[in-house]
Structure formats: structure tokens, C-alpha cells
């Protein structure tokens, strides 16, 4: 995800980069080593299982391995064309891309995880730069039943003459709304908390947010304050719950809570 956050405007959405993102996503999964970064070669229909792990049958049939490359090419071409011509609202393009991607299920495994990474990439490319600061995935996790129901209702119509995008689009847009509301509440809480902090403490917190961590030396160099003064503020920020202390001695650093 760090690659997407830092270089989203330099990552074109094409088949090669989708495969590359899949490979990177599963880089540390030994069981996926043979197929990561490659379209699926075996059927991966979505099945239901009982408590004993026995299959109860296919819930949803995904694209066959033979059809997958062609369908992904069609999907990517559709996304690229509509991203340029402005016919549809960017959020509708993202919603349709994601639901069709999951309907194709192009990789042997990791399709759900990759769909969430691609959602983030597409939203950032569309100008929704708040996305890294609030988790859409956690919103979906808390509404898993509605998520799967919306997916199935729309996916079951995609290859028919009566496509119904509404169930999925409505769920997707409501989830984005909840994500934005969460971020607004988080910003408001931080505004209230930071309003009571000394200016140097606020600067240290901003440094920790920008870099992911902060040390006494980092804070002293960035703010011009003495090391002893910085230590006092770091200690206070830790006691107040804004920062967490990691390591010891020269290896000591602080991260945001």
C-alpha cells in the first residue's frame, strides 16, 4: 500500500501493473509463490462450506481461466476510456471496476485483498486524497454480510441482458460516506486534543505523522529546540497517550498511537 500512497499518480491502471501489484501483495506468501502475478490457471468459483469444511456447492461462478485475460483486457480498456472522457462520475467508475474485477476473480488467490488495493489506487487517481487517512476496509469488515449480499446481487446480473448495478453501487457509496464521516470525527477529536498542546508538542506530533516515527535527534533538528526540551515534550506526549515509546538507549524512537 505504501507504493500506492506514494506513487499513485505514476501507476497506470493496465494489466501489467495489476499483475505487478498482485505479485507485490503476495510477495511474502510462500504458498502463493507459483501463481502470484499471473492470471489464474484453475477454476476458482466461490463455494460455500459446512462447519466440517465440506463443500456445499458453488455460490458464484467466476470467469474461466480461458476467459480471464480477455475479460480483464475489456475491463481495463473500459476503465481507461471512461476515466478520460468524463461520461460517468469517477466514483461510479471505481464501483463498477471493483465489482467486475471481483466477478472475474482473475487470480488464483488474493483477489479480495488486491481489489481493496485497486480501490485505493483508483480513488487516489480520481482525486480523493483523504483515502490513506481512514480505512475503507474496516468499514467493509463491519458490514460483511451486506457487502457479500450486494456483491452477489450485482455480480449475478453482469453477464445478462438485465444488469443491475444498484445493489453494489449503493453499498459502495454508503461505505465511502461512512469512511469520510469517520475521518471527520477523527480530525475533530485531534483538533480538540491538539488545541491544548504546546506548539513544540504539536510540531513533534506532525513530524511523527509525516515520517511514521520520530527520535529525539529528529525532533531537535527539525524544531531547533534543545534535546532536553524535546525529551520533556516526548515524555509528556507519551504519558498523555499521543505517542508510544519503542526501543531503548540510542535505539529509542516514538510512534503515533
UniProtKB/TrEMBL annotation:
GO molecular function: ATP binding; DNA-binding transcription factor activity
Membrane found in the keyword field: no
Keywords for this protein: ATP-binding, Nucleotide-binding
KW ATP-binding (keyword) present: yes
Active site residues per record: 105
Residues bound to ATP: 109-116, 147-148
Residue ranges of every copy of the HTH arsR-type domain listed in the record: 179-257
Domain Fido, first and last residues per copy: 13-174
Protein name per the record: Fic family protein
